[in-house]
Structure formats: structure tokens, C-alpha cells
From TrEMBL:
Domain Response regulatory: 176-305
Family matches, as InterPro entries: Chemotax_regulator_CheV, CheW-like_dom_sf, CheW-lke_dom, CheY-like_superfamily, Sig_transdc_resp-reg_receiver
Keyword Cell membrane tagged: no
Keywords: Phosphoprotein
Pfam families per record: CheW, Response_reg
GO biological process terms on file: chemotaxis; phosphorelay signal transduction system
SUPFAM superfamilies registered for this protein in UniProt: CheW-like, CheY-like
CheW-like domain: residues covered: 14-159
Presence of keyword Phosphoprotein: yes
Protein name according to UniProt: Chemotaxis protein CheV
Modification 4-aspartylphosphate, positions: 238
């Protein structure tokens, strides 16, 4: 898979997804293919299943063990087990080799279907009954593809340890941070870490909601009818979000005459050396890889005080 050919220009509010499927065993010889998707930017390559089977001594039932992959020892997880799906064993199963959050992990699936380019505006919020590992639904021709939150899977298997609180000099006033994050789990974690660090945090669930609120704040700050209204001191945004992604949100903030001076930090599992150019292209002031919570608070404070 050549990333140079498929990764999109920053700020177009589009993404490329790898559609794959898990073949569910319905019993009595019947099966059905369940369609899932993951951002192409997280997929390094796709390899054949080398014949992995569940380990009785595994720390979690979805852990299938490790396989050698060039210079790597690759841990492999069975997505069907995590999603509570009875997978039908079939020839041609694949392992999606992914890289995000500074970790390389394999995910077992029944097969890969296609790569699609879709607009974030076409991604629908998932129904609550689908569970927390589905971040969105997108219609591809005659079926829906469920976008999987691989970050949450890894986090729940290996949680981020609590950090020792740092002793910081109390600022002259409380700085405010507007956070755009669609994952409820990650939104709460960032909220808690920044609140503990002394910030006032304003929560939004995606880039579109964040931009609408920022423009309303800017209008209020200029209006004599809303004394005391003001913009936040900094914006922290995820990248992968339905309706409006973080790259596009950043670009629109920087192009807006009333918002352009706002510092914007990209806080995403997609922040790595191969993809930092995308954040720079849209004018991000800083880029931090999840889940570096401790560094996030320090960078937020430094950007505000520099401004």
C-alpha cells in the first residue's frame, strides 16, 4: 500500500478508509459479512493470517499472540472477539498492520474489500446500541460501513497510567481551552487532565460544533450586547471527527479574520513523523500524539503565554 498515492491533501474534510469485513457465523451453515472501516493513514500494510489461533493463557481473549514482521514483533488482536462476534473461520483471512499512538498492532479480519474516499460530512454518528468501539457510520453504495475506534480498543487493553501531578505556578487568570473531540472516553480524559492542570475546558463533540461555537463567541466578543464575551485562549482538536475533521477545522480557524490568531493544537493518534506535514499545511501551532496528556498541558500553557 503506497501512502503517497492515497493520503489526501490536508483540510479537504475528506478521508480514505480501508473497508474490511468480519464473516459472522449465524449457525446452521449460514454466515453474513459485517462491514467495517479504518482510516488508511493508520494502516501500514495488509498481510495474510499466518494461522493464528486463540491462546488459552492470553491476558485477554482477543489476543492471538505475536508474529515476526521484519524487524518487529507484532501483537495481533482478533477484532471479532473484541466486538463479540462469532467469526466463521475461512481461508484468506488477513491481518491489518496498523501504526498509531506510537504503537504497531495487527488486527485480524476475514478479508479486505475496498479503499474508499468519503467526506467527513457524510459520516453519521453511530447508534448508542452499537457500542463505544464504533465512531461513525458511512453509506457505501448499498450498505453501511462501521468506522472502528481502534484507539479505544488499545486503551482499554492497556490503559494510560495516571501521571503524577506537576507543581505549576498559578497563572494570573484561568486560561480557557476549547476541546473538539468526538470520542466520549477521550473527551472526558482530556477534560480531567486539563482541568487538573488549572484550565477551564469548553467541550465540543466534533469540528463543526467547535467552529460554530467559536464563530458565535467571536460575534459576541464584538457585540456591545454581550459584555464579557470572549474567545478561548487556545483550541485543542482531534483529527478524525465526523462532520468536520480537525485538519479542516484548523484551516478554517486560521483563514477566519476573527479567529486566525487563536493557537490550535492537533491532539491525535495520527500525529507522527510521516504525517506532521499535514498539520503544518493547515497552520497548526503544535501537534501532539495521543495519549501524551502530560505534555499536552505544558504545550497549551506555553502557547497561551507566548501569545
Amino acid at each position: 500500500m503506497d501512502h503517497a498515492d492515497i493520503l489526501l491533501e490536508s483540510g479537504t474534510n475528506e478521508l480514505e478508509i480501508v473497508e474490511f469485513h468480519v464473516l459472522e457465523d449465524l449457525g446452521h451453515g449460514e454466515t453474513r459479512a459485517l462491514a467495517f472501516g479504518v482510516n488508511v493513514a493508520k494502516v501500514l500494510e495488509i498481510i495474510e493470517n499466518p494461522g493464528l489461533s486463540p491462546l488459552s493463557s492470553a491476558p485477554h481473549p482477543c489476543f492471538l499472540g505475536t508474529i515476526p514482521l521484519r524487524e518487529l514483533v507484532l501483537p495481533v488482536l482478533d477484532l471479532a472477539v473484541w466486538l463479540d462476534i462469532t467469526r466463521a473461520r475461512t481461508p484468506g483471512e488477513v491481518v491489518l498492520v496498523t501504526r498509531f499512538n506510537s504503537r504497531t498492532t495487527g488486527f485480524l479480519a476475514s478479508g479486505v474489500t475496498h479503499i474508499h474516499r468519503v467526506a467527513w460530512s457524510s459520516v453519521e454518528a453511530p447508534h448508542r446500541l452499537l457500542g463505544g468501539c464504533v465512531t461513525g457510520l458511512v453509506r457505501i453504495e448499498d450498505h453501511f460501513v462501521q468506522l472502528i475506534d481502534l484507539e479505544r480498543i488499545l486503551f482499554e487493553l492497556d490503559p494510560v497510567p495516571d501521571e503524577e501531578p506537576k507543581q505549576r505556578e498559578k497563572p494570573a487568570r484561568t486560561y480557557s481551552v476549547l476541546l473538539a473531540e468526538d470520542s466520549a472516553v477521550m473527551r472526558q480524559m482530556v477534560f480531567e487532565r486539563l482541568t487538573e492542570a488549572g484550565f477551564r475546558v469548553i467541550l465540543t463533540g466534533n469540528g463543526d460544533e467547535a467552529l460554530t461555537l467559536l464563530r458565535a463567541m467571536a460575534a459576541g466578543a464584538k457585540s456591545e450586547d454581550q459584555p464579557g464575551a470572549e474567545l478561548p485562549d487556545v483550541v485543542v482538536t482531534d483529527v478524525e471527527m465526523p462532520q468536520l475533521d480537525g485538519y479542516t477545522l484548523t484551516r478554517r480557524i486560521k483563514e477566519d479574520p476573527d479567529l486566525g490568531a487563536l493557537p490550535v493544537i492537533l491532539f491525535s493518534s495520527l500525529v507522527n513523523e510521516d504525517l506532521r506535514h499535514k498539520g503544518r499545511a493547515v497552520g497548526a501551532d503544535a501537534q501532539i500524539s495521543k495519549p501524551e496528556f502530560g505534555r499536552l498541558a505544558d504545550v497549551v500553557r506555553a502557547l497561551i503565554e507566548k501569545r
